[in-house]
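Q: I have 120 residues here and want to know how they pack in 3D. Can you give me a structure?
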Amino acid sequence: MEPKVIELEPFVRCHKESMRPIKDALEALSGKWKLPIMVALSSGPKRFKELSAEIGGITDKMLSKELKDLEMNLLVKRTVLDTFPPTVEYRWTAHSYTLGDVMKALEAWGKLHRQAVIGG
């Protein structure tokens, strides 16, 4: 499959104006765990331990930190349910759905990149 060639000239011309939004996006999604958390939550609300088990390899401390960052960036909603003991649930926000095309593009590029680097 021949890689799709995109025109970079318009992007290069306005790169100074594009840099701030790109930095903002990378800041909101940076790190090893934020996108896997968002992917895990894309199938619906989850409790902390469910997220931890689904993602795998993440410490509770790191998961807690990343969830707080995502909540601060309006990408995750934390809800304390009225149960005993209290139950906390995490879910996508309305703003999270704006990431749909970005996540699909990253998945497509990731597949191309893996094929280019590893092959077959």
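Q: Anything worth noting?
A: The chain has a mean pLDDT of 89. The radius of gyration is 17 Å.
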